[in-house]
Amino acid sequence: MTRHALSTRLWHWLNLACVVVLFMSGLNISNAHPHLYWGDWGFDPRDAWLSVPRFPGWMTIPGHYSLAAARDWHILAAWPFALGLLFIWIAMLANGHFRRDIATGRREWRWAALRADIAAHLRLDFRHRRGGYNLLQRIAYGIVFGILLPLMIATGMGISPGWEPHLHWMIESMGGRQSVRSIHFVAAWALFGFVVVHVALVLLSRPLRQVRDMVTGGRR
Amino acid sequence: MKRRSLLVGLGAAAVAGCSRIADSGPGARALAAAEDWHRKAQRLFAARTALAPEYDRAAISPSFRGNGSLTVDTDAYRASLASGFADWRLNVRGLVRHPLSLSMDNIRRLPQRTQVTRHDCVEGWSAIGEWTGPQLGLILSAAQLLPQAKYVVFRCADRLRGAPYYESIDLIDAFHPQTIVAHRLNGEPLPERNGAPLRLRVERQLGYKHAKYLTAIEAVASLDGIGGGAGGYWEDRGYQWYAGV
Question: Is the Mitochondrion keyword given for this protein (chain A) (predicted)?
C-alpha cells in the first residue's frame, strides 16, 4: 500500500497551486482598500480595527497593482480550490484516510500525549508511531481541512454580493459582511502560517523522501 | 536575509508564471470565463429574484461615501443642480416600442420603492443607505421592450479620466424587484457626490454597476460597439462585467 493515495497527491499539488494564486492575488486585492472592519459596513480607515501594509509587487499576482487582473485570478482559482476541497473530502472519507490518519478519538486528547508530542517536536524527533500521524499532526490537518479551507471558501462567497441572498444567515452569524471580509483575511494568514510550519517540518524530516513520496506515493 | 530572498524568488516565479498564463490564449479565455461560471452557479442555486438583505433604518451608516466621479464637471450640470434638476431628462430608448423622456417630476410620481441596502465597493468597503425610486422594471414595462432586447445600458453625464461613464446589466437584473432608479438617499434628494439627480441601484452586484448621474436607459441586443464593447466604463478597463462576485 502506498503512503499517500493518488487522490491525496493530486489534490495536494493542485491545492498548492490554487493557494499560491489565491493568496498572492488576494494580497493585490487587499491593496485596493487595506483596512479591515467589524460589522455590516465600514469605509473610513479611521473606523478600521486593522490597517495592513501595502504588499509589494513580488508578493502579488499580477506583479503590479491591478485590482481587475487580480480579481480575474482570484475568481478563476476559486473554482479548482473549492471543487478540489469537495473532492478530497469525499476521497478522504471514502478511502479511510480521514478516519485512519486525521480523526482523533476522545482517548487521544490527553495532556500527557500532547506534552509528549510537543516535546518530541521540540527535539526534532519525527519518528511516527506505527501507521499514522501523531496528535499534533492530526490537530493541524484537522484544523486545515475542517476549519481553515472551508472557511476561506465560505467567507469568500460571503463577501460576493451575488451570493448574499443565499448566504445571508451565515453572514449575519459571522457579524456582517465586513466581519466576514476580516475573517477571510485572518484565515488566509492562518493558512499561510500553516504552510510555513508545514514546509519547515518537511525540510527538517528527510525532505527529499517526503516530496518524492507526495509525488510517487511512496511506501507505508 | 537568504530566506527572504528565497521567498522573493518564489514569489517572483509565481508572478512570472501567472503572467505567461494570462498572456496565452487559453489562459486568457479561462480568466474571462470564470465570472460567467460564478453568475451561472449563483443563479442555479437560488431564485433569480432572490432579494439582497434589507436593513432597519437604525443600521444606516452615518455618512455615505462618494467614490469615482463626485460631480459632473460641466456648466450645464451645475446650472441643472442649481435649479433642482427642473430641466433634467431621463431618456428611455433603443429597442423599445415607446421611447420615453421622463422629467424628475414624472419619476417622482411613479410608484416608489424604498429600501435600506448595503453598497459593496469592488475595493472592499461597504456602506448602508436608504434608497428611494421607481423600479427599473416598471419604466421598462412602460416603454415596452422589443423581443430582441437582451441588455439595458445606462448612459451617464459624468466622465471619468476623460471618458464617459456607462454601465449595463442583463434583463434578469433589470427586472429584479430591488433594481430601482434612485432619486433619494436617506430621505433627502440624492447628493451630488452620490450621483444626483438619478442613480441605478442593482443590489446584488458591486458598486461600479450602480451608474450615477443617469441621462438615458438604452435597451440593446448586444454590447458590441458600445464604448469599448465590454459593457461598462470599468469593464472596458479589465473589470468583470458580472459584478456579483
Answer: no
* Chain B residues lying within 8 Å of A43, measured CB to CB: 61, 65, 121, 125-127
**Closest C-alpha among A142, A61, A43 to residue B10:** A61
ipTM of predicted complex: 0.92
Q: Which of A60, A76, A183 best tests the B interface by mutation, with the highest count of B CBs <10 A?
A: A76
> Ramachandran region of residue B210, left (φ > 0), alpha (ψ -120 to 50) or beta?
beta
Which cell goes with A111?
495532556
- Sheet with B184-185, strands from edge to edge, namely B113-120, B126-133, B184-185, B188-189
pLDDT tens for B105-138 read 999 999 999 999 999 999 999 999 999 999 999 9
Give the residue among B187, B178, B186, B163 at the shortest CA–CA distance from B210.
B178
Residue with cell 443590489: B203
Query: What is the tens place of the pLDDT at every residue in B207-242?
Result: 999 999 999 999 999 999 999 999 999 999 999 999
State whether the Cα torsion B55-B60-B61-B63 is positive or negative.
positive
**CATH superfamily, with its number, for domain A6-216:** Transmembrane di-heme cytochromes, Chain C (1.20.950.20)
The count of structural domains within chain B is 2
Tell me the C-alpha to C-alpha distance, in Å, between residue A4 and each of A10, A95, A219, B216.
Answer: 10, 11, 8, 61
Q: Would you say residue B134 lies in a domain?
A: yes
Contact B122 A67 (CB under 8 A): yes
Residue B242 lies in a domain: no
Interface contact A41-B39, CB threshold 8 A: no
Distance from CA of A162 to the nearest CA of B (A): 4
Q: Are residues B41 and B52 in the same domain?
A: no
Nearest to B204 among A37, A61, A165 (CB): A165
Nearest to B70 by CA among B176, B229, B194: B194
State whether A42 and B126 contact (CB < 8 Å): yes
Phi, psi angles (nearest 5°) of residue B20: -70, -40
A-chain CB neighbours of B237 within 8 Å are 68
Residue-wise pLDDT for B4-13, tens only, equals: 687 788 888 8
